[in-house]
Specification:
single chain; about 400 residues; alpha+beta; conserved putative lor/sdh protein from methanococcus maripaludis s2 fold; 6-stranded antiparallel β-barrel; 5 helices; elongated
């Protein structure tokens, strides 16, 4: 019997020994294998600021462009780009020979139109009025003579010295003379119709408008500053040939600038009026200008390979150092939240639409689902799943992927 129990116990002894060896192996392996070095960050509460950056161009709030009024040449220029000028200062003089000739022609046209209107409203010119008076006097003499002849023939007919046909002829001559006198008097009273008088008035108004335009052009041949400001753009010099409408110079107040910023279409929904803006110019490193969004875009346009919306930014340029037409970097603060639980953006993982992080618990990685909120360029707001003080892994030193249950140690 003892021999039989001895034979039955040996297999169990070997099984126990094998189990012990395996346990020892894994214990030694766990204690001796190298742990994965990971970079970690603690979950904390902080202010979470979301920003957008893009390019923009500086432009004056109130820009005054001066264009050539006619095609001509430049006689003289009295300013240089960058000069500060007072309102009304003479900036340049253009050749005005042709404009003076146009003024003279327009003045002549006004004179002729005035004479025509005066004639129309006074029943003709002085010469016409004198001729009309002479016609009336002559017609009256003919009428009176015809009347005397008729009276004489009527008396002679009564004595039988004149025939009835002679009296009839005298009556016809008197009627003709009366008609001629009536026509002459009517012509002297209303030589022109109402439509002709109105046409003369319209012609005078047109002539006066032409004269005003010619004189205005003549005045513009002496180029004056429309407002006080700085000449920041000058495109002409003495003897330059300029076509009508050519932009010759621009004037603006250097302290009243704004920025036209160009934001990509997907970012437009995050923009709103009054959002804070910071502007930087590479020519002045270390210097910034502040402002706010004054107007959001109402449409999207193509700019090269981009679809952008143009945003107007009101700017504080009280130092006058930000120049027109310069290219700048515009950064808009789209949101700002204080005391928000957040993690670095590189700590957030996503798999099959589920967001999670790897927490470091007892020197091992634990996959932890999270619900996130606002995401900035560097931080992610965490709404649930983590607590302040938790440690999360952001990556490994050697580039190996993070995995659940892997023993780790913090990289120094």
């Amino acid at each position: 019997m003892a021999q039989e129990r001895k034979q039955l116990s040996w297999p169990w002894i070997w099984v126990g020994a094998a189990i012990l060896v395996v346990v020892v192996f894994f214990a030694v392996r766990s204690l001796t294998r190298e742990r994965l070095q990971v970079r970690v960050m603690q979950v904390s509460r902080q202010e979470l600021v979301s920003v957008l950056s893009t390019n923009g161009r500086v432009e004056p709030e109130d820009n005054h462009e001066i264009h050539a009024p006619v095609t001509t040449t430049v006689r003289a220029v009295y300013v240089r780009a960058g000069d500060t000028v007072e309102a009304g200062k003479v900036l340049a003089v253009l050749n005005d020979v042709d404009t003076r000739a146009r003024v003279a022609t327009a003045e002549s046209g006004v004179g002729a139109a005035q004479a025509t209107l005066e004639a129309a409203t006074h029943n003709g010119t002085q010469e016409q009025q004198q001729a009309s008076a002479a016609d009336i006097a002559r017609a009256k003499l003919d009428h009176d003579q015809a009347e005397r002849d008729l009276n004489a023939l009527v008396k002679l007919q009564a004595t039988g010295a004149a025939s009835a046909s002679e009296v009839s002829g005298a009556k016809q001559r008197l009627a003709s003379a009366a008609a001629t006198l009536d026509a002459a008097e009517s012509s002297s009273r209303s030589r022109y119709s109402a439509a002709e008088v109105e046409r003369a008035r319209t012609a005078l108004a047109d002539a006066q408008a032409n004269l005003a335009a010619a004189r205005d052009t003549e005045d513009k041949m002496t180029v004056r500053a429309p407002v006080a400001g700085t000449v920041y753009s000058l495109d002409v010099q003495p003897t330059s040939f300029v076509e009508a409408g050519k932009l010759m110079m621009q004037i603006a107040n250097p302290r009243q600038m704004r920025v036209r910023a160009f934001f990509d279409e997907p970012d437009l929904g995050r923009l709103a009026e009054s959002q804070k803006v910071v502007v930087k110019w590479e020519a002045r490193l270390g210097h910034t200008w502040t402002g706010h969004i004054e107007r959001v875009p109402s449409t999207v346009t193509s700019s090269g390979t981009r679809n952008v919306g143009e945003v107007l930014v009101a700017l504080d340029n009280s130092d006058g150092e930000l120049l027109p037409d310069t290219n700048v970097t515009v950064t808009v603060t789209t949101s700002s939240q204080a005391n928000i639980l957040s993690i670095p953006r590189e700590a957030l993982r996503m798999e099959q639409g589920q967001e999670f992080v790897y927490r470091v618990v007892n020197d091992e990685l634990k996959r932890t689902p999270v619900v996130t909120g606002t995401i900035t360029q560097t931080q992610v707001a965490v709404l649930s799943g983590l607590n302040a003080g938790d440690t999360v892994a952001t990556g490994t030193i050697n580039g190996q992927p993070l995995q659940e249950g892997v023993p780790v140690k913090e990289a120094q």
